[in-house]
Structure formats: C-alpha cells, structure tokens
C-alpha cells in the first residue's frame, strides 16, 4: 500500500525508538537518531515528520521535520555504509526517500533515492541517541533495524469531513467548511494547556452578554491554537486542527469548539468557557469550519 501524505511518528519495528531530530535543531547537519518515545501520551516534537510525495516519482517522498522545517538527508547522497542521516535544507535527491512495504507487508523501508541505501538503526540499538545511518539493504527482507512503522498523526480534510458526518449531533441543515488540506490532531492535554494561556474566563474575558459571549470564546480558542502552531513549527503545508461549530438546542443557540478523538473515529466537543471536553455538548450543529 502506498504511503499517504501526512504527519507521522516513525517508529522502529524492532525496538521502541523513533526517528528523532536531535534537540529539534534547524541547523544543517543536525544528527537524526533513534530516541525513545515512552508510552506515547506526551508528544516529542522532535519526532514528528511531514511526509510528502515528490511529484512525478512513484513511492518517493520527502520527510520534513515539523519543528525545524529541515528535511531528512543522506549526507552527500553517499552509498557507503554508515553514511550519516541528518536534517538539512532542501537541495536534491539525497533528501528523497522511496518508502515501500518491507517483506512483512506491515512495516515500511526507506531507501534513499540518490544512493539506494536504507535508513538503518545502527545495530538495532534501543539506547537514546543510537545513530541512524544509510546502509546497504533491500526491500525483500525483514531486518528490523531497517523496518519502520509509520504512525499517522494527522487527517486529511476528506477524512475529517467523514468523521464529522458520522457524528449524531448535527442538524439536518448542517454545512461544513474546511480551509486546509492536512490537519495535525492534537491530544486533549495540549488543548487544555493552550487554553490556560488564553486568559479565557478571567478578567475582561469572562462571559458578558453580547460583548463577549460564546462565539467570542470559541474564536479566541481557535486563534490561540493557530498562533501556538505558528510559533511551534517551522515546517508548513499543514494546519493544526481546531474546529468551531454553531449549534442549537431548545430555546437557545451556542458556539463551541471541537476536535477529533485520539483514535480518529469520532468528534469530541470542547467548551471554551470551562476548558472541558465532552462527547455531547447538548447542541445540534448547523455550521462548522476548521
């Protein structure tokens, strides 16, 4: 199966380490290493990668660090074993990777387009800081130090729309508008951390009839997540997901935010007045944009 464009956490098939840009540095030549990722409940920003197809080339992709904006690069495009893989600015085919299933049809292998060598976790090591090199190999084996699981961390606009339309809390007049093509889905703890920086429900951002009411709360939250993403990431070509819905309930209307669940199967509502998530916010949405 061809890999889809998206944001991924790339995990080794043999040991619990992920492809990590050391310290998230944007400097050319920054080492890319294997690094642990714990239980996965907290994101490591140095381990998120935007994988994008190269136009006109089958199964060929660039792999770009979200936090640094640099690309996964085989130093000099060399075919020598133990050639360093680093983060660098976009220059050529040494930053293009042919990504296809390995022989097990579960994990993927990453072959550099310039050299024909593979991204290899040195000796399959599990220690933080284990080097990742270019090394000879082929697609027809399951050597775990060259096999990688691509855990997707984003959804396309079409996928988000499909999840929303399966949500039971929509009115028959519902319309949705998306403004971007690929969305990074943040875990709930990050939403709540970002909300804590907004000043909502404090000072002059408390609820006030008409002057600062539900739609203003939802707009501030959506803006806060967008600003957080703009400050956090140097890569572009994706958005950080934060939806806004307008809904109705008997005798009232309401505005609120929403996101997608961790398993990407359902809508989760967010009340920006209280910093709380819920599966049912008591409204049926007639309009959403994200």
UniProtKB/TrEMBL annotation:
Gene3D superfamilies: 2.80.10.50, 3.30.460.70. SUPFAM superfamilies: Cysteine proteinases, Ricin B-like lectins. PROSITE patterns: RICIN_B_LECTIN. It comes from Polyporus umbellatus. InterPro entries: Agglutinin_C, Papain-like_cys_pep_sf, Ricin_B-like_lectins, Ricin_B_lectin. This is Lectin. Residues 46-135 form the Ricin B lectin domain. Residues 183-277 form the Agglutinin C-terminal domain. Transmembrane segments: none annotated. Pfam families: Agglutinin_C, RicinB_lectin_2.
């Amino acid at each position: 199966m061809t890999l889809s464009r998206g944001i991924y956490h790339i995990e080794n098939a043999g040991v619990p380490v992920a492809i990590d840009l050391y310290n998230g540095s944007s400097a050319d030549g920054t080492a890319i290493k294997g690094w642990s990722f714990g239980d996965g409940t907290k994101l490591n920003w140095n381990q998120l990668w935007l994988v994008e197809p190269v136009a006109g080339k089958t199964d060929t992709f660039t792999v770009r660090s979200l936090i640094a904006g640099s690309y996964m690069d085989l130093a000099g495009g060399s075919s020598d074993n133990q050639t360093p893989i680093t983060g660098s600015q976009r220059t050529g085919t040494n930053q293009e990777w042919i990504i296809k299933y390995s022989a097990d049809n579960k994990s993927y292998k990453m072959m550099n387009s310039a050299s024909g060598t593979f991204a290899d976790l040195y000796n399959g090591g599990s220690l933080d800081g284990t080097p990742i090199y270019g090394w000879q190999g082929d697609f027809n084996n399951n050597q775990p130090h060259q096999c990688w699981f691509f855990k997707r961390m984003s959804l396309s606009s079409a996928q988000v729309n499909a999840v929303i339309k399966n949500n039971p809390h929509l009115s028959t007049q519902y319309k949705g508008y998306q403004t971007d093509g690929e969305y990074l889905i943040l875990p709930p703890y990050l939403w709540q951390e970002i909300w804590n920086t907004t000043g909502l429900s404090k000072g002059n951002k408390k609820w006030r009839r008409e002057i600062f009411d539900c739609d203003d709360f939802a707009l501030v939250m959506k803006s806060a997540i967008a600003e957080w993403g703009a400050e956090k990431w140097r890569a572009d070509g994706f958005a950080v997901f934060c939806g806004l819905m307008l809904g109705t309930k008997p005798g009232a209307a309401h505005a609120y935010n929403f996101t997608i669940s961790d398993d990407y199967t359902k809508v989760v509502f967010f009340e920006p007045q209280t910093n709380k998530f819920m599966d049912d916010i008591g409204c049926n949405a007639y309009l959403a944009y994200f």
